[in-house]
Specification:
By secondary structure, the chain is mostly helical. The chain is built from 17 helices and two strands. Strands 1-2 form a two-stranded antiparallel sheet. The longest helix is centred in the N-terminal third of the chain and has 28 residues. The radius of gyration is 25 Å and the shape is flat. The termini are far apart. Keywords: Calcium, Cytoplasm, DNA-binding, Golgi apparatus, Guanine-nucleotide releasing factor, Membrane, Metal-binding, Phosphoprotein, Repeat, Secreted, Signal.
Length: 355
C-alpha cells in the first residue's frame, strides 16, 4: 500500500548507511523470457529498524491500522503531502472499535515504556522527586496529556515526528562526514609536526602517492545513466546487455515488489561503480568516503527521477527518465563530493583562526 510504503520510507532513511552493501540477488534467467522477470522470493527484505527510539511503536501502529478496511481504503490513494501534513489522521475517527482498542493498548504500553526510561535515567543520576508527567513532554510522538487513549492527535504527532526526525537525516550525514574529513586532515597534519624534516618529507611523499593511486581507477559511469544501469544488468543480474529493457530492470530491482524503487534499492545499484574506486583492502581507499559517495549518487538520481519528491521512484517516473537525453548522453561523473575536496581547506581556515 502506497501510504504505508511512504511512511516506512521515511523510517528507512536512518539506516541506509547500514544497508548500502545490499544488492539485488543475481538471477539465472532464460533470456527468451526476459520480459516476465520478477524478483526471486529470497530477495525480499523486511523493513529494517529505523533507529528511532519509538521504532517498534511506529511499526505496530501501522500494522494495526492496516487491519481496518475503512482506513486502508481511505489512505490507499493518499498523496505524500496529505500523509506528511497529518490531515488524514482524522480518518482515525472512523476505524472500528476493535482497532481503537488495540491502538489504546499500544499507547499505554508506549507511555509505560517511556516512564521506565525516565525512571532509569533519574535513578542513574539519583534525582529524587522528578515529575515524570512533565518529562513526558519531551517525547513528541504521542499526546502525553491522554496516556490511555490513542486519538487522531496521536497519529498526527507520530507521522510528523517521524518525518521531522528523518527528513534531515541526509543533511546530518553530510555534516558528520565533513567533520570526519576535517578531523582526519587535522590528525594527519598534527602527526607531521611530530616528525623531523626527513621523515616529514617521506610521509608527504607517501600521502601524495596514495592520493594518485586512489585517483587512478576505471571510468565511473554517471549514476542513473543507461551505461550505468546496463552494467548492473550485465554484471549483477547476469543478463545480455543487448537485451537491456528498462521496465524489466525496474522489476528486477524492486526487491520487495512494492511497485517503487526506494532509496535503499537505488543505493544498491551503485555498488559496481563504487567498487571501481574503493577497495577495503587498499590503504588509500577510505570506505567512509565511499558511503558518502553512495549517498551523493543516490541524491543525484533522486533529484533527476523523483518528480513528485516523495522519495520513491515509480515505474512511470523511471521510464520517463530513460527517455531523457541525460540518460543516453550523460555528463561525466566526478568522484569525490565537495566536502571531501574542501575538508583540507576548511581545516586550514579553521586552524588559521586559532591563537
Amino acid at each position: 500500500m502506497r501510504w504505508r510504503t511512504i511512511l516506512l520510507q521515511y523510517c528507512i532513511l536512518l539506516v541506509t548507511c547500514l544497508l548500502t552493501a545490499l544488492q539485488a540477488v543475481p538471477i539465472d534467467i532464460d533470456k527468451t523470457k526476459v520480459q516476465n522477470i520478477h524478483p526471486v522470493e529470497s530477495a525480499k527484505i523486511e523493513p529494517p529498524d529505523t533507529g528511532l527510539y519509538y521504532d517498534e511503536y511506529l511499526k505496530q501502529v501501522i500494522d494495526v491500522l492496516e487491519t481496518d478496511q475503512h482506513f486502508r481504503e481511505k489512505l490507499q490513494k493518499a498523496d505524500v503531502e496529505e500523509i506528511k501534513s497529518g490531515r488524514l489522521s482524522k480518518e482515525l475517527d472512523f476505524v472500528s472499535h476493535h482497532v481503537r482498542t488495540k491502538l489504546d493498548e499500544l499507547k499505554r504500553q508506549e507511555v509505560g515504556r517511556l516512564r521506565i526510561l525516565i525512571k532509569a535515567k533519574s535513578d542513574a543520576f539519583q534525582d529524587i522527586g522528578m515529575d515524570h508527567q512533565a518529562l513526558l513532554k519531551q517525547f513528541d510522538h504521542l499526546n502525553h496529556l491522554n496516556p490511555d487513549k490513542f486519538e487522531s492527535t496521536d497519529l498526527d504527532m507520530l507521522i510528523k515526528a517521524a518525518t521531522s526526525d528523518l527528513e534531515d537525516y541526509d543533511k546530518t550525514r553530510h555534516e558528520e562526514f565533513k567533520k570526519y574529513e576535517m578531523m582526519k586532515e587535522h590528525e594527519r597534519r598534527e602527526y607531521l609536526k611530530t616528525l623531523n624534516e626527513e621523515k616529514r618529507k617521506e610521509e608527504e611523499s607517501k600521502f601524495e602517492e596514495m592520493k594518485k593511486k586512489h585517483e587512478n581507477h576505471p571510468k565511473v559511469n554517471h549514476p542513473g545513466s543507461k551505461d550505468q544501469l546496463k552494467e548492473v544488468w550485465e554484471e549483477t543480474d547476469g543478463l545480455d546487455p543487448d537485451d537491456f529493457d528498462p521496465k524489466t530492470f525496474f522489476k528486477l530491482h524492486d526487491v520487495n515488489s512494492d511497485g517503487f524503487l526506494d532509496e535503499q534499492e537505488l543505493e544498491a545499484l551503485f555498488t559496481k561503480e563504487l567498487e571501481k574506486v574503493y577497495d577495503p583492502k587498499n590503504e588509500e581507499d577510505d570506505m567512509i568516503e565511499m558511503e558518502e559517495e553512495r549517498l551523493r549518487m543516490r541524491e543525484h538520481v533522486m533529484s533527476e527521477v523523483d518528480t513528485n519528491k516523495d522519495r520513491l521512484v515509480t515505474l512511470e517516473e523511471f521510464l520517463r527518465a530513460t527517455e531523457k537525453k541525460e540518460f543516453l548522453e550523460p555528463d561525466s561523473w566526478e568522484m569525490g563530493s565537495p566536502s571531501v575536496a574542501q575538508a583540507g581547506a576548511q581545516w586550514h581556515d579553521h586552524s588559521s583562526l586559532q591563537p
